[in-house]
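Q: Hi! First time doing this. I have a protein sequence and I read that you can turn it into a structure. Is that right? Here it is:
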Amino acid sequence: MEMEMDGFDRLPDAVILQIFDLVSDTKTLIRCLAVSKRFNSLVPHTDSLVLTVDRVISSDSNSDSDSDGDDVSNLLSSALRFILNSLHSLVSPSKPDPTRTRARVPNSPAQILRCFHRVRCLAIDLPSGDLRLEKGTVLKWRAEFGKTLRTCVILGFRSVGESPAPAPAGAESDFAGGLKVRVVWTISALIAASARHYLLKEVVREQTGLECLVLRDREAEGAVVMEKDGLRECREEGEVVGDEEEGLDRCRTRVPSVRMRMRHAPRLELKGGLWVEGATLVVVRPSYGGGNGNGNGNGGGDMAAEDGELALKAFGDGLYGEVAQKLVQARSYLLEMNSF
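A: Yes, that's right. Below is the predicted 3D structure, encoded as structure tokens:
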């Protein structure tokens, strides 16, 4: 009696690898390792993966972040504490209980990915964003890294609706009145980005074939992106950093001194009759990376064009992209921040 040949047995290895690349889900592919000897030998050669992290558990379960949003100092300290605590469980998990060792599974991206040897494109999805904002506030960001921050684009607004709110006194007074909150948005996004980048360093060191790496969240709040040259730079830096990033920086990459070009509009009318209130766009670059202009002003056509390209890359051409492109045309304010 002849055994019927399985359909996959007729397919060449190259076709099966293309199927695995389309599947991309890391957990599904890990299960495929147990299907057959052939799958077990081919799965590690998959070059396009998506790793979904199921949960991030804060090491401090006593969350008291419902403080008054008008107190900017409390808002900032709460944001910093929440971001660092929430990602600490992924970066520095607590020591395992010997009685439960057998029940534990690999809990860092690098551990989970060790059975894959030729990954070129990797996306890691966190279960949620890192920031807690007042109700109705929207904040989106995209940060590009090498060994440290290269650029970060941050877009925020207070609300969006079909009818405009009462007209503010003026763009200047509205900007000045909410400046502290917008700086808090910016610092919070930078800390979230630097914590995510720190989480990726072990993956970058171990997956030497990576050409594109993205760490994002399922709420689409923010994304850390590392492209081929940035990955190479981070990998080459790897062994040198060690002792410098102990202490307060043990859970995140240090943010360098930066220049922040901030644009604000009290109100914007979008296509389809939508209105956005209190919109702000911040483009962050390291101070040593350039950026012309002194103090306030329009920042020059070249800088506006560069900012527009970064905003398009970060937010696309949907609603967020439309808001960003309108803000690029607004007056810009140059702020500087020391490394932290």
